[in-house]
């Protein structure tokens, strides 16, 4: 199959959508399909061979961070050329409701079936309401919609009067399972890991700190490994110095180091108190074969197979977390059992499996696109 | 003279807009027909897979779907879905995938029917009767046929 994928964000900036597009493209190519990815890129940037650069990206503040988008007549011309020259069997766009290449691609396509994946839960804004006519046009041209999480799908149903097929983000299991632990970790006394913005209350780092204090008091070698942006001083200022010594902050980590970090700990903790629509870090930890202890949020419970692939604790309760953490840290047999079950769950999220589900949607979209002499209508 | 130019431009613009809306109406109704025939095909595939089952209720329900009169089609589909859900999961493994594809087909068809109904309600379309060549699209009203817990809805 000839597949054209459009990514609205530039690959130079790390992000979930770009990662998803790249992994999906590489998996489809490995399965034997011809894939071309259209994405914004500056002239002098080196891109993977399957990427067609669509011109310079302009930084635009969006959704709390800065996105680099390409939009305008020059980009529109590039998009049209790519669509015409590509002779694709299906065009797959990501986040088509942002002013970007994805939106331009949907408007440029003539006969090809269009599949769209929605990654974020968009919030209604005045700007969106003002251009709702254009958005309606875009949606009409999309044959099949995919959402990566129940939350992204809910936004479709509630705000746009339509549905979406749920296919979760894939994870590259081998990249995590084969990563080497960081030197000196997990160490003799064991280690516990956390990844995320530890200064943001909803990430629940405070809950973990309390629980770690309790559990580490009676386990002299136990350490805590933290990766993610933020100032360690903010969270360490109230801690006893001997406890603070047992916490290591890695700062922002690359994808490679993230995998290594997950392999460096005996348990990964996700103490989030809310706002999680999926929990990709959980699937990554499961892929790494690391036992997971997580808050009992709906999204986490779903990923952890109802609590069988990891331990769940009452949201925001440090005592409950401490008891689960102690159980996992002290019992190697339990860790092995959780890791094994976790690997089974992660296999379902592995990119080859997810790509097959995406291909199923492609096949259906192709089948459901009008050609000359089409079949009967319902009457 | 400029009045003439102005009037001609206005007429051309209006005519372009009307042509564009008309082609949008045609395209949407064409997609309704195409997605319906794909949905029909998936339904037949599911029923065909179900006829191979050992469970008697599933077999009868599947044959009913294959031979159903158009008016009774949706009821027959729901009966088959119910029979498949009641049967133990071991006996219906061959039907899980066709059921999932049927759910996808229903999703896609419903989305385009909704869009087609919305475009028919536009005042210009009603005024010029641009949708007169197309019968009013109907939803294919069946329950969600997905069998297993995983996968989308």
Walk me through the structure.
The complex is a heterodimer of chains A (379) and B (153). Chain A is of the alpha/beta class. Chain A is 42% helix and 17% strand. Chain A folds into two domains: 185 residues, Rossmann fold (3-Layer(aba) Sandwich); 174 residues, 3-Layer(aba) Sandwich (Rossmann fold), CATH 3.40.50.2000. Chain A has 16 helices and 15 strands. In chain A, helix 12 crosses helix 15. The radius of gyration of chain A is 23 Å and the shape is elongated. By secondary structure, chain B is mainly alpha-helical. Chain B has one domain. The radius of gyration of chain B is 22 Å and the shape is rod-shaped.
Quick description:
Chain A is an alpha/beta fold and 379 residues long. Helix content of chain A is 42%, strand content 17%.
Layout of SSEs?
The complex is a heterodimer of chains A (379) and B (153).
Chain A: E1 2-6, H1 16-30, E2 34-39, E3 51-53, E4 58-62, E5 65-69, H2 73-86, E6 90-94, H3 101-108, E7 114-118, H4 126-130, H5 132-140, E8 144-147, H6 150-160, E9 165-166, H7 173-177, E10 191-195, H8 205-217, E11 223-227, H9 232-236, H10 241-244, E12 247-251, H11 255-263, E13 267-270, H12 280-287, E14 292-295, H13 298-303, E15 311-313, H14 318-330, H15 332-349, H16 351-367
Parallel strand pairs in A: 1-2, 1-6, 2-3, 6-7, 7-8, 8-9, 10-11, 10-13, 11-12, 13-14, 14-15
Antiparallel strand pairs in A: 4-5
Chain B: H1 2-51, H2 56-66, H3 73-86, H4 93-120, H5 123-128
């Amino acid at each position: 199959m000839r597949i054209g994928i459009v990514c609205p964000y530039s690959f130079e900036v790390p992000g979930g959508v770009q990662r998803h597009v790249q992994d999906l493209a590489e998996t489809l190519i490995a399965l034997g399909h011809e894939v071309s990815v259209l994405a914004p890129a500056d002239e002098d940037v080196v891109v993977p061979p399957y990427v067609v650069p669509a011109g310079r990206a302009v930084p635009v503040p969006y959704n709390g961070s800065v996105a680099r988008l390409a939009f305008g007549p020059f980009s529109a011309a590039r998009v049209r050329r790519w669509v015409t020259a590509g002779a694709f069997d299906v065009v797959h766009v990501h986040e088509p409701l942002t002013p970007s290449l994805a939106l331009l691609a949907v408007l440029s396509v003539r006969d090809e079936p269009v599949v769209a994946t929605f990654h974020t839960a968009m919030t209604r804004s005045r700007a969106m309401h003002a251009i709702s006519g254009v958005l309606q046009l875009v949606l009409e041209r999309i044959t099949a919609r995919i959402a990566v999480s129940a939350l992204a799908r809910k936004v479709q149903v509630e705000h746009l009067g339509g549905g979406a097929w749920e296919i979760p983000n894939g994870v590259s299991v081998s990249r995590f399972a084969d990563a080497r632990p960081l030197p000196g970790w997990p160490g003799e006394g064991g280690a516990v890991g956390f990844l995320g913005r530890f200064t943001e209350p909803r990430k629940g780092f405070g809950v973990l700190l309390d629980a770690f204090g309790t559990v580490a008091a009676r386990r002299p070698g136990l350490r805590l490994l933290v990766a993610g942006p933020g100032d360690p001083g903010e969270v360490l200022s109230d801690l006893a110095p001997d406890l603070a010594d047992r916490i290591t902050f890695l700062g922002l980590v690359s994808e490679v180091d993230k995998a290594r970090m997950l392999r460096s700990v005996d348990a990964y903790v996700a103490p989030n108190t809310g706002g999680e629509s999926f929990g990709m870090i959980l699937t990554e930890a499961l892929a790494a074969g690391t036992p997971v202890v997580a808050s009992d949020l709906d999204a986490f419970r779903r990923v952890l197979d109802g609590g069988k692939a990891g331990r769940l604790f009452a949201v925001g309760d440090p005592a409950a977390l401490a008891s689960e953490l102690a159980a996992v840290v002290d019992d190697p047999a339990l860790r092995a059992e959780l890791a094994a079950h976790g690997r089974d769950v992660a296999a379902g999220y592995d990119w080859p499996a997810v790509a097959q589900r995406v291909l199923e949607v492609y096949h259906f979209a192709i089948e459901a696109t009008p050609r000359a002499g089409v079949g009967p209508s319902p009457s | 003279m400029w009045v003439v130019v102005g009037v001609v431009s206005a007429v051309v613009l209006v005519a372009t807009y009307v042509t564009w809306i008309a082609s949008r109406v045609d395209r949407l109704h064409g997609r309704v027909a195409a997605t319906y025939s794909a949905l029909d095909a998936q339904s037949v595939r599911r029923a065909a897979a179900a006829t191979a089952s050992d469970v008697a209720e599933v077999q009868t329900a599947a044959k009913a779907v294959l031979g159903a009169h158009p008016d009774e089609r949706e009821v027959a589909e729901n009966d088959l879905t119910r029979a498949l859900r009641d049967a133990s999961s071991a006996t219906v493994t061959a039907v899980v995938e066709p059921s999932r594809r049927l759910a996808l087909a229903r999703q896609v068809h419903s989305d385009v029917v909704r869009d087609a109904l919305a475009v028919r309600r536009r005042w210009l379309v009603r005024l010029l009767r641009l949708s007169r060549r197309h019968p009013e699209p109907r939803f294919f009203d069946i329950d969600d046929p997905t069998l297993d817990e995983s996968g989308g809805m």
